[in-house]
Amino acid sequence: MARVGHVYPQVEPGVAALMDVRVVTAPGGVSAARALARARAAGARFVALGPRQAARESELARAVEWGLGSRPARRVAWRDLPTVSDRASEIEARRLMLEGAALVLVRRAGRVVGVIDAARMDVAPVESSALARLERAGDRQSEARLWLLRVAGKIGEGMGAPVYAVGGFVRDLLLGAAAPDLDLVVEGDGIVFARRLAEEIGGTLLVHSGFGTASIEAGRAPAGDGLDGVPLGRVDVASARREHYVTAGALPEVEPAGLIEDLRRRDFTVNAIALALAPDRFGRLVDPLGGQRDVRGRRLRALRPLAFVEDPTRVFRAARYAARLGLRPDAAALDGIRLAVERPDYPVLSGQRLWHEIELAAAEPRARRAFELLVRWGATSLWNIERVKTGRLIEAERFARWARLAGVAVDSAELVLLALLIGRPAPAVRRALDRLALTGEPRAQLEAAAVASPLAERLGAARLRPSGVDECLAPAPEAALLSAWLRGGARARRRIEWYLARGRAVRSRLSGQDLIGLGVPRGPRVGAMLTRLRRLRLDGGAGSLADERELVKEWLTSGKEA
Fold this sequence. Notes:
Elements: E1 23-25, H1 32-42, E2 46-48, E3 54-56, H2 57-65, E4 83-85, H3 90-98, E5 103-108, E6 111-117, E7 128-129, H4 131-136, H5 140-159, E8 163-166, H6 168-175, E9 182-186, H7 190-201, E10 204-208, E11 213-217, E12 234-239, E13 241-244, E14 253-256, H8 259-264, E15 274-276, E16 284-286, H9 291-296, E17 299-300, H10 307-310, H11 313-325, E18 328-329, H12 331-342, H13 351-362, H14 367-376, H15 391-406, H16 412-421, H17 426-435, H18 440-451, H19 454-459, H20 466-473, H21 478-487, H22 490-501, H23 512-517, H24 524-538, H25 545-558
Parallel strand pairs: 1-2, 4-5, 9-12, 17-18
Antiparallel strand pairs: 2-3, 5-6, 7-16, 8-9, 8-15, 10-11, 11-12, 13-14, 15-16
Helix pairs in contact: 1-2, 5-7, 11-13, 11-14, 13-16, 14-15, 15-16, 16-18, 16-21, 17-18, 18-21, 20-24
């Protein structure tokens, strides 16, 4: 029987209570296939590779299955792992896992005798609060977003399904950057939650039932509290889930899971932080993988050694985050990127997904920086462009900057792609466009513009009136204009800029109906005469409406209207 007032000794089980002793060692330079064979022969779950590196048997098996068996095992292993003595306390090991360690190596007399696997541990992350950051902005847009977050939390509470803001919203909140559209994760039925949220805020719902996700075009905040009419943007909702990549580059298979597993399946630690929205926990940060520390250090750390092989589009995401947010991939992430781009092929990675990533990167405020990083990392090989020179990316940036200032809309993805393709042999251009699955007329126009550009030479001619510039450029597709600008000299570029900003907007003062009223027969003659009037205006002739009428009458009577 326990005695009142008696002090009983506390038993500290130490790391022995946490570690898995099924571990073998191997040199870091051994191939992944041989390291896997050694693990299986010993019935081991882990292979220790050098002082602070290790790999799970399951990760080695996946690397071999995905064609990386001949690579050194250290290339597919966790690196810079923390180590503890076999006499260390359990608290010390748990602290390391709370700081984001995936594996902790346990040593005795310099030898690895066990591994603690965070993925198999029930570790409750220490929470901090971001409520002050949420409330600090003070502008109406931020207040409307805060209102939306509170509404979401109350709906989740009513359903008994905890709701969290995750991903880029939380990352950018901690960085002090402008937050993108809102991503929510629900520990429960995300689609049912999304329907209720859409009803509450008056948004338009689009359901993607195959992935358990939904999107809400949220419209505007309701009247009251000075928020009426403030746009709420887009809200993406997903059920918390785990993922499994059957094949490198394929879309993952998903199944329901809890929040921590959902955070573990993401790409980078900075995107694996959740913000609780339940009323009694509103604003609390859940960070099981050390994401806040990486945010403070502006560090981009992948959540798995094979993260970029699983999904090569993460390479493009890394370039975008580095360019826009100044996040620097650490050494392990850079090695993971190299491993992904060295892999010869991703047959199940569709060209449409690659093209979408090009569009996203080209739309970045610092698009040139993003593509320079992709070139440096060799990532353009994913769409069959090798040994790329980046000089024309500088020119593409100049043109994009001019277009923004001039209010001229251009296809930024086509512009960047042309900057990378111009000067390459026609077969190489075709291979790249084939990989991107571009088809039809847009494909034909891009191919023609990348291979040759007679417009650049014609526009460089000394004697060319504005109507002559219009005659050259009016029938040309946008890709041809972009190519001509990238290839052309100063005179050609000025003429293209003039045409895009002013020249193509010039119209005759008379309309088609006016011409018919003056006696021009219906049909192609109307269009031909409108073009003639327009080009006269471009060259400074036919100044007034009356002048145009007189010219039309003269052409009709003289038979020179065609």
